[in-house]
Amino acid sequence: MKFRLVCVGRLSEDWLKQGAAEYLKRLRRHYSIEIVELKEEQGQLKDVAGLVRREGARILERIPADAVAIVLDEKGKLVSSEDLAERLQQEMLHGGRDWCLVIGGPYGLDPAVRSRADLVLSLSRMTLTHQMARLLLLEQLYRSGTIIRNEPYHNR
Questions:
Q1: Which tens digit of pLDDT belongs to each residue from 42-81?
Q2: Distances in Å between the alpha carbon of 109 and those of 14, 29, 44, 104?
Q3: Quick one: fold of 2-154?
Q4: For 108, left (φ over 0), alpha (ψ -120 to 50), or beta?
Q5: What does the angle CA 83 – CA 88 – CA 93 come to, to the nearest 5 degrees?
Q6: What's the rounded Cα separation, in Å, for the pair 1 and 30?
Q7: Comparing C-alpha atoms, which of 129, 124, 77, 85 is closest to residue 103?
C-alpha cells in the first residue's frame, strides 16, 4: 500500500519543513509515500472561484483512478486517530488500494475535488493553514501506523 499526498503549495517555514521531514522519515520505515506539490494558482483575487477551479482540475489529474481519495476540508468529517487507523487497517486487509490524500490551497477546494473524494476529512473545526494541515496529516498517518502495530507512540 502506498500513500500519495497531493498538496497545493510548498512548505515555507523551516519548522514546518523540519516537522514534515521527521514524520516522512518515520512513515517511510513502513509505507511508501510520495509528496506531490502543485504550484498555487496566480491571478486576481476577484476571481477566487476561477483560481480554485483551475487548482481543482490540476489536483484531479494527480489522483489515481483506483486510489482511495481522502480530501481534507474544514467542513469534512471529524474522526479520531483510532478511527483513521481502523480505516487504514481495513483497507490494508481487504482492499489494499493506495490512498491519495489531498490538501488544497489557501482558498479551499473546488467542489469537483470534494465530489471525487471517498472521504472528506477534517483535522479540526478550527481553520488551519494548508501548510500546518500537511504537518498534522503526516503525524496522524504515522500515528495510525503505530496504532496498527501496537507501538507505544499513541499512549493508549
A1: 876 778 899 999 999 999 999 999 999 999 998 999 999 9
A2: 26, 31, 17, 5
A3: Alpha/beta knot (3.40.1280)
A4: left
A5: 125
A6: 10
A7: 129
At 12-34, the pLDDT tens digits run 999 999 999 999 999 999 999 99
Tallying the residues shown for the chain, one arrives at: 156
Give me the DSSP letters along 72-112: EEEEEEE--HHHHHHHHHHIIIII---EEEEE-BTTB--HH
Q: With contact defined as beta carbons under 8 Å apart, do 38 and 63 qualify?
A: no
Q: What angle do CA 77, 12, 105 make, to 5 degrees?
A: 40
Cβ-contact 135, 24 below 8 angstroms = no
- pTM, entire model: 0.92
d(CA 16, CA 8): 15
